[in-house]
Amino acid sequence: MNPVIVLVRPQLGENIGKAARAMLNFGLTEMRLVSPRDGWPNPNAGPAASGADIVLERAQVFDSVADAVADCAHVYATTVRKRGVTKPVVTPEVAAREVHAAPERSAFLFGPERSGLETEDVALARTILTVPINPEFGSLNLAQAVILVAYEWSKGQALAQPSLTPIDPPAPQEELEGMIGQLDDMLERANFFFPPDRVATSKRTLRTLLTKPAWSSQEVRTMRGVLSALNGAKERRVEAQRASNAESS
């Protein structure tokens, strides 16, 4: 099952909306709120969610953390290590693997913006989840914390950002060979391949360079057009030079 995101005593509707946006970015839709300071629903959450309305519409409100996670067998408290609380400590990556492997429901607890989870909240969790962070500036906002956890969880899901435009298939080898041959001919005429004992190596290096990208047919045609234009410009310069020499003589 997909994990539940539990926001414990969130303070601002905007932050709830931003957390919902972070959740939906990575395929999570079940949000539970524990005693939100300004009540629920909150009119400031919608605009901040930027279209993640399904998360806000389905959000459930609970009076206590215990009630919010009552159906969850695996509860992770996102916090720094708490004094007096001895529990396993894992990173979001490790937690994500555990959640995917567990058949039971899991929950991630996130504390209020100002102070984070209280020791009593952490005591309800089975595991502490934390990230390596700059000790001189360890402040993450609520949405940032949610997105870190949601992103790691999403790695085990079939989520993929589709291209805005279809990606063309690679060009047939015949077309690629034609482009390479055209360039070889131009470089031969320009005396590029020198000295003679380096010709084979230079051509092999050039071929390796040109076959690294998966050229599409359109890209090959465009490049050959460029080469033809360069070749034509050179020929026109030669003809102009010949005409000028003839006039001078």
Describe the 3D structure.
With 249 residues, this protein is α/β, with parallel strands linked by helices. It has 2 domains: 4-154, Alpha/beta knot (3-Layer(aba) Sandwich), CATH 3.40.1280; 173-248, no CATH class. Helices cover 47% and strands 11% of the residues. The protein is built from 10 helices and 7 strands. The chain has helices at residues 13-25, 45-49, 53-58, 65-68, 92-101, 119-123, 142-154, 173-189, 199-211, 217-248, and strands spanning 4-8, 31-34, 60-62, 74-78, 89-90, 106-110, 127-129. The protein has a 7-stranded parallel beta sheet with strand order 3-2-1-6-4-7-5. β1 (4-8), α1 (13-25) and β2 form a beta-alpha-beta unit. α1 packs parallel to α7, α5 (92-101) crosses α7 (142-154) and α8 runs parallel beside α10 (217-248). The longest helix is centred in the last third of the chain and has 32 residues, at 217-248. The mean pLDDT is 88.
Would you count the extended β strands for me? Answer: 7
Low-confidence stretches: none
Radius of gyration over all CA atoms, rounded: 31 Å
Going across the major beta sheet, what is the strand order? 3-2-1-6-4-7-5
Largest sheet geometry: 7 strands, parallel
* CATH homologous group name of the largest domain: SPOUT methyltransferase, trefoil knot domain
Task: Look at the helices and sheets and give the structural class.
Answer: alpha/beta
Distance between the terminal alpha carbons, to the nearest Å? 89 Å
Structural domains: how many: 2
In which range does the helix fraction lie?
40-55%
Mean pLDDT across residues? 88
Inertia-based shape: elongated
| Secondary-structure arrangement, i.e. CATH architecture of the largest domain | 3-Layer(aba) Sandwich
Broad CATH class of the largest domain: Alpha Beta
Q: SSE order in H/E notation? A: EHEHHEHEEHEHEHHHH
Give the helix tally. Answer: 10
Name the beta content range: 5-15%
